[in-house]
Design the sequence.
């Protein structure tokens, strides 16, 4: 996340101090029972009608047919007739731990997101400050999603984003991995401009430190090499399009040369790397090469977090309709990188993109959907992520858009739902506690007013959220949204 974004978030966070300290996410002391719900447990089993789910503390203590389950006398009973209970959702690619609970965490929970994979923040933000936020959530003094975090983003000597960690030697790369583990991170994130030797040093040290590593596939390595090195997830489809293109072996050296020559992040290098280069690769998409690449990734168990909503934002960055989005009421005016009506001409990274570039990006986005469909058919596993708070990637709300794009790409509604429930739990090795609705599991739950298996957009129709056993009904969620809206107006 760029430094200017952190400054804006930090300024906003100060205005939320009182709200931050009053929040609580400790489990309800009494039992809670959802009666007569349709349970979509995310295991892949058919929806189960007329079920009762009882929560005691922060765990599901009973689940079964409404006729068979005994509801404790002290339970708070929720009439869930004609409503649908699903596991809490995860956003597996977000940047939220510089927020100080000001705006992002309340918006995530209000949208049914009970878990988040924080993919790294500015290098000048201490790991201890990030860890303090998630500890407050874990201790129950702050309402928010549970968080796993990368801490900082590791890049090469000329980082794409100045606030990334700029690594120059293998010894420094290894020591950085060691230091991040000491700081309490859950995984390592690698970035675009890492040279080969530093990338493989990080991969080796992460394995020694028993830390997963994820992130961008650097331009210095192929997707197959990154998969073989043990990179657990690819973000934004980096490396994937190259793996599908006949021209990738010829084009990648030119891109590397371009990166080595540039002196800081500019719109010129962004236009070359993320528009012209990608377009050339897509023009020479080879289905046979793609099949071989996907088989390689599947055999290695390499996950994909494509952040389709973020890719769509880039493709449609020239669309001024973003100013009409009613969800902008939750975005502070100080976030000019969101609210500038001429942002395509003022954004430091995208200001040189032409009308033809945007037309090509829109066609490329459609091709990316087709590639996601092909990877899904090939058996590759997916994670739902948004890259919020990128411009027009609305915190919390955009995760539902990501699920809808997965369905547009050919997934069934249950497959899309699993990218935000079961799959994150499997990926994080916490399936014994989270990801599905089963007896004994942690009570991260979302009650919906409509069936997401009939229409995935129904995940937006939220009646209540339970996060770590604490129930937030519609009134409580609306109150959170009103507080965010009021603060946004002041900033």
Sequence:
């Amino acid at each position: 996340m760029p430094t200017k974004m952190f400054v804006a978030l930090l300024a906003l966070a100060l205005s939320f101090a009182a709200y931050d300290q009053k929040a609580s996410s400790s489990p309800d002391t009494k039992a809670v029972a959802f009666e007569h719900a349709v349970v979509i447990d995310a295991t892949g089993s058919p929806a189960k009608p007329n079920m009762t789910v009882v929560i005691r503390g922060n765990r599901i203590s009973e689940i079964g047919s409404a006729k068979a389950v005994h509801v404790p006398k002290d339970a708070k009973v929720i009439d869930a007739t004609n409503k649908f209970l699903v596991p809490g959702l995860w956003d597996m690619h977000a940047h939220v731990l510089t927020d100080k609970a000001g705006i992002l965490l309340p918006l995530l929970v209000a949208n049914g997101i009970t878990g988040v994979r924080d993919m790294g923040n500015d290098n000048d933000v201490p790991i201890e400050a990030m860890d303090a936020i998630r500890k407050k959530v874990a201790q129950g003094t702050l309402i928010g999603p549970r968080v796993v975090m990368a801490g900082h983003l590791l890049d090469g000597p000329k980082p794409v984003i100045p606030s990334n960690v700029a690594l120059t030697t293998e010894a420094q790369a290894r020591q950085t991995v060691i230091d991040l583990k000491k700081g309490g991170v859950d995984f390592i994130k690698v970035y675009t401009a890492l040279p080969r030797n530093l990338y493989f040093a990080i991969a080796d040290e992460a394995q020694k430190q028993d830390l997963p590593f994820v992130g961008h596939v650097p331009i210095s390595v192929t997707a197959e090499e990154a998969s073989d090195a043990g990179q657990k997830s690819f973000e934004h489809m980096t490396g994937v399009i190259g793996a599908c293109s006949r021209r990738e072996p010829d084009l990648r050296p030119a891109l590397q040369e371009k990166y080595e020559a540039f002196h800081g992040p500019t719109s010129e290098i962004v236009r070359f790397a993320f528009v012209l280069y990608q377009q050339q690769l897509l023009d020479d998409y080879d289905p046979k090469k793609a099949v071989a690449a996907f088989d390689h990734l599947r055999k290695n168990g390499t996950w994909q977090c494509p952040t389709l909503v973020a890719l769509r934002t880039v493709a449609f960055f020239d669309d001024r309709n973003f100013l009409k989005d009613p969800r902008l009421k939750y975005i502070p005016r100080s976030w000019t990188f969101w609210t500038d009506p001429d942002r395509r001409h003022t954004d430091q990274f995208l200001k040189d993109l032409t009308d033809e570039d945007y037309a090509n990006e829109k066609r490329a986005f459609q091709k990316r959907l087709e590639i996601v469909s092909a990877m899904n058919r090939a058996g590759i596993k997916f994670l739902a992520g948004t890259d919020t708070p990128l411009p027009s990637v609305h915190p919390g709300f955009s995760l539902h858009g990501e699920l809808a794009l997965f369905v547009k790409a050919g997934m069934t509604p249950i497959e899309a739902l699993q990218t935000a429930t079961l799959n994150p739990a499997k990926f994080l090795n916490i399936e014994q506690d989270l990801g599905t609705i089963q007896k004994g599991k942690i009570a991260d739950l979302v009650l919906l007013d409509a069936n997401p298996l009939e229409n995935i957009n129904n995940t937006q129709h939220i009646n209540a959220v339970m996060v770590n056993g604490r129930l937030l009904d519609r009134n409580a969620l609306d109150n959170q949204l009103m507080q965010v809206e009021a603060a946004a107006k002041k900033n």
In short: The radius of gyration is 22 Å. Residues 355-377 form the longest helix (23 residues). The chain has one domain: 3-22+90-434.
